[in-house]
Amino acid sequence: MQNTKHLARLTGIRAVAALFVVFLHYRNDLETFLPSTKILDPLFSAGDLGVDLFFMLSGFILMLNYEQKFRRFALPEYRKFLWTRLARIYPVHVFTLFFLTALVLFARHLHQPLHHPEWYTLPAWLQNVFLLQAWTGIAQTLSWNFPAWSISAEWFAYLFFPLAVPVLLGIKRPIFAVAVALLPYLAVAVIHGDHPLIPLALLRVSCEFVAGCALYLAFEKGFRVPGNTAFWGILIMVFLWTAEVRGIPRVLILPVFAILIVRLAANSTGFLSGAVAGFWGEASYALYMTHGICQEVLERLLRPTHFATASFTMRLMVLASYALAIAGAAILTYLCVERPARTWMRNVYHGAGRPEVRVTPEIIPMQS
């Protein structure tokens, strides 16, 4: 059932999720430029759940792509899988890490204060290089290019995924496995608060990634959800708004994320399957990995507080400059770093001069 038409809107939803992550981190700047947007703050504050959606999407897509290959574990396929995944995530990670390193060193040379100076240490830098910064017992906080914590967690999921496939394939009712997989993280998040970052990163990714894998198997066996996709999307927005205002644990929305994924996979048409949504879905990883660096630079060059009392036209122009800079950085990183580096790494594995075989689009998680 590996049919790429089922992935069209799953790629497009990445663009929407990426925008919510951006709004999460820029919401204070946005409210300074346009105070009327403060009414949307309960919704933007829930943007960190984009990472949960992407962890689930990742499991769904990887199971679709690799179900047949890992019915039985084989070391050569395992090595190939890990190299392919590394080619997908590592070039942009290294590029943004080294770019930020240069900025940090330049700021220190000019004696400019840094936001969160405790993030920028040599041990943390080495953890980032080896994608270990989110692993339990190694780090307890964000560091360097902070969105990369979820890439570190995702790498952990890649390591165990081929070993988990045969076990998951043996489950007779995978839809129940989705609920069972989500339950441990839901329980911990409800009891201890639903804003866990690094200390619970591996629990978070493991539960949601496995849930996504099981969700695909349920989808493959014919599991469908009635109703309109737009209805489920609106329900998510309403719940997140209400949860933020009323203090309800927001992670309770995760089962509805699963429903949304199934609805999107079952319908290949709609605005999320268009060319613009598809492009930004593909470029969402670059957007995710560069928007934090852009914020560090933009808030120094165009401080929002300097324009708080400016005319509406001036504030709108500065806001447009922010949007263009963020979008431009993402597009350039995607076109000039991510795609060529991924192709080069895959060709290195398969042998010099052999063309890259394009595979089904893949999902990369977002950061909270």
Write the layout of secondary structure elements.
Blueprint: H1 8-33, H2 41-44, H3 50-66, H4 75-109, H5 122-129, H6 149-169, H7 174-192, H8 201-220, H9 229-246, H10 254-266, H11 275-282, H12 284-301, H13 312-350
Helix pairs in contact: 1-3, 1-11, 1-12, 3-6, 3-8, 3-10, 4-6, 4-12, 4-13, 6-8, 7-8, 9-10, 12-13
User: Which ranges are low-confidence, i.e. pLDDT below 50, for 5 or more consecutive residues?
Assistant: 352-368
Number of strands: 0
Number of discrete domains: 1
What characterizes the major β-sheet?
none
Helical stretch count? 13
Question: How would you describe this structure to a colleague?
Answer:
By secondary structure, the chain is an all-alpha fold. The protein is 67% helix and 0% strand. Helix 4 (75-109) packs parallel to helix 12 (284-301), helix 4 crosses helix 13 (312-350) and helix 9 packs antiparallel against helix 10. The longest helix is centred in the last third of the chain and has 39 residues, at 312-350. The protein starts with 7 loop residues before the first helix and ends in an 18-residue tail after the last helix.
Quick structural overview:
With 368 residues, the protein is an all-alpha fold.
Q: Any key phrases for this structure?
A:
globular, disordered C terminus, mainly alpha, 368 residues
